[in-house]
Design brief:
Elements lengths: L5 E5 L16 H5 L2 H13 L6 H14 L4 H9 L7 E5 L15 H14 L4 E6 L7 H12 L3 E4 L13 H10 L3 E4 L12 H8 L13 H6 L7 H7 L5 E4 L4 H9 L7 H11 L3 E4 L10 H7 L9 E2 L12 H13 L1 H16 L7
Parallel strand pairs: 1-2, 2-3, 3-4, 4-5, 5-6, 6-7, 7-8
Helix pairs in contact: 2-3, 14-15
The chain binds zinc ion (ZN).
């Protein structure tokens, strides 16, 4: 019963790490005061004037947690829902280059704060450096936090406007492969967090694609899903065959739902990722956020009986992107009860341990 649980995907960044124009409808300003946030929550709980209530609910949670004074507080808020010996991969977030305006505090300060928590919880926390290759001296930044502050791996967020095969990332991949450092990459098609600059900027960024991309009648969100497509990793994996890469969110709930309705669509990201984790030795996926919808539990359990992929699925929760506060505890418990101890132990312990292990250091 007592084994170390690994939650391989959580966030602790704060409101000061989010650019000014990130949330729609001037929500950032409205929610900046506790008064505004409370009014807004009450409104949401009583009436439903918005079509995307879930999304807005999430924004409120997002702002409320993000407003906590320190990343340490955000982390402790999350970790209290898990058994004492749980270990957490904390993914930093660099939103300076997503065309959404100025970020109140420097990204390096976010990393430094994370380095401080690592000192307080050296065993519990495995921090990941998010690298946006548009940031100057990316390799130096990355190496500094790995070597001097014991950070654990690389985080990528392609929908912000970069391709995983961007050549500026290659020296970092080389370094990660050499030192067995894991890479966790956001991978879902209809994500609300994407490049917020002009369409013309996006067309320009998309020119670096290795495949033809149809841009006709596409929204910015749809255009940005091209950056994060799982197929963009095939060239990376051919060039770095021993690089451990995790496609976070297993394509997202939206793709799971579509798969359940139309299982034979070859363009479905759930199907594509499932195929790729079976094919590439060091390709993984995590169930963070996606599994917050319990209607997918059965499909996950069925997948766990597939020998080719059941060692490639990782447990993660995507705290604090999920909807309500009680969810974090219930999420772990409900999933554990549904999957059964053997399956849960595999995704939350054995698989995560193998993926996260950067040397013989992790017991
Ligand atoms: Zn996440």
């Amino acid at each position: 019963m007592s084994y170390t649980i690994y939650n391989s995907h959580i966030h602790t960044f704060r409101d000061v790490d989010i650019p000014r124009k990130f949330l729609p409808l001037g929500l950032v300003r409205l929610l900046a005061s506790n008064f505004g946030a409370n009014i807004f929550t009450t409104l949401l709980n009583n009436v439903n004037p918005f079509s995307e209530k879930d999304l807005l609910d999430r924004y409120v949670k997002f702002i409320k947690i993000g407003k906590l004074k320190t990343q340490k507080k955000v982390f402790e808020e999350c970790s209290k829902y898990y058994p004492e010996n749980t270990r957490f991969a904390i993914l930093a977030m660099d939103m300076a280059y997503m065309g959404a305006g100025r970020v109140p505090r420097d990204y390096i300060d976010q990393l430094d704060e994370l380095a401080q928590i690592k000192k307080s919880y050296p065993r519990k926390i495995l921090p990941f450096v998010h690298i946006d290759p548009r940031r100057p001296q990316s390799l130096e930044v990355f190496k500094k936090y790995i070597e001097q502050h014991d950070f654990h791996g690389l985080k990528l967020y392609p929908p912000l406007g970069i391709f995983p095969h961007d050549e500026r990332l290659y020296p970092i991949y080389e370094y990660c492969q050499k030192h067995h450092l894991p890479v966790i990459a956001h991978c879902s098609p209809k994500n609300p967090v994407y490049y917020k600059g002009s369409k013309r900027d996006i067309y320009e960024l998309l020119k670096k694609s290795k495949n033809h991309i149809s841009t006709i009648n596409k929204t910015k969100k749809e255009l940005c899903s091209n950056f994060t497509h799982p197929y963009n990793y095939t060239s990376v994996m051919n060039d770095f065959p021993e690089l451990k890469i995790c496609m976070a969110h297993f394509g997202s709930g939206d793709q799971w739902k579509e798969f359940l309705e139309q299982p034979r669509n070859p363009d479905n990201w759930f199907s594509i990722i499932r195929k790729m984790i079976a094919e590439y030795k060091y390709f993984y996926t995590d169930i963070s956020f996606t599994m917050n919808d319990k209607s997918f539990f059965s499909l996950l359990k069925v997948l766990m009986s597939d020998e080719k992929i059941n060692s490639k699925i990782l447990f993660g929760s995507d705290y604090y992107m999920v909807e309500t506060e009680s969810d974090e505890r219930r999420f772990g418990l409900d999933l554990r009860a549904f999957l059964g101890e053997q399956n849960f132990r595999k995704i939350a312990h054995a698989n995560s341990k193998t993926f996260l292990c950067k040397s013989a250091l992790i017991p």
